[in-house]
Amino acid sequence: MNKPLKAKEAYLKALELDRNNADLWYNLAIVYIELKEPNEALKNFNHALELNPKHKLALFNSAILMQESGEVKLRPEARKRLLSYINEEPLDANGYFNLGMLAMDDKKDTEAEIWMKKAIKLQADFRSALFNLALLYSQTAKELKALPILEELLRYYPDHIKGLILKGDILMNQKKDILGAKKCFEKILEMDPSNVQGKHNLCVVYFEEKDLLKAERCLVETLALAPHEEYIQRHLNIVRDKISSSGFVEQPIFPTSKTSGVEEGDRIPAESINEIRGESRQTQIIKMSDNKSLSKSNKQLGKNRDKEPPHKTAKDIKEIEKKRVAALKRLEEIERILN
């Protein structure tokens, strides 16, 4: 009912009656997350784990909470808890993915690659794992290895804007495929005409094609979308200087076989992916009540995070149903005692 304060009050009363119930401590931690009190949430997760060191959801969500805090000193414990989690849930791709994200935070690129690949092996369409693996390759000078991963990502999610930006960036800067890059940026603008990065990079394509007048118009439009971005104004000035020094009225577009006839000092860099790290961490919130579990996605902290639905097998569903029946029996017993 989105009444976290009432929920907090109820769980605190419940804990007065049963302080050894790990699920109650876990649920109280979830309430504190809803109330944006991560330190209190972590304390309660820890209480749950003291009572039940194998409490899978407490292991998983406390690890993510420590990871999201940005505190380097908490990372070893977060890693330890995620390793315990995948030991309990070896078929959950989310555990491996978050280990990969943690390894990326620690600049352990080889380890991050291994974990991301394991997540993708378990869940071929894992959007966040696919994107972050491609991003990892692009950040470690393995851009050409990123391309097939991006192709796979865009096969499942053709509207993944950051994937299209990254693909266009690699095509333009590594493959020198200006036409391929242009298609990526045009597709972004079809979906989101106000996307500044996509628009700016399309302007760079025009510049690479030597269509300076079109590049100028494009940059003027981009500057109108983001008037405070200094780099757009700087690149507009470069284009105008080039037009002025060329002294031409109309500039033809070069054929695709000769797309980069611009002097090195006059080049305009494409804008690569900004603020992508951590764009897609999975925080899986599951509220527990007398061994009955209900899944609920947590609101992600920070910018541009993709949410992935938790994966449940037929066995999981059957187990949940058994717990639901058990919970109902317990409620009937409590009602009988009260009567």
From TrEMBL:
Coiled coil location: none
Pfam families linked: TPR_1, TPR_6, TPR_8
Biased composition (Basic and acidic residues): 303-319
Keywords tagged on the record: TPR repeat
Annotated gene: TMTC3_2
InterPro entries xref list: TPR-like_helical_dom_sf (IPR011990), TPR_rpt (IPR019734)
Region (Disordered): 282-319
Protein name per UniProt: Protein O-mannosyl-transferase tmtc3
Polar residues: bias regions: 282-301
TPR repeat extents: 22-55
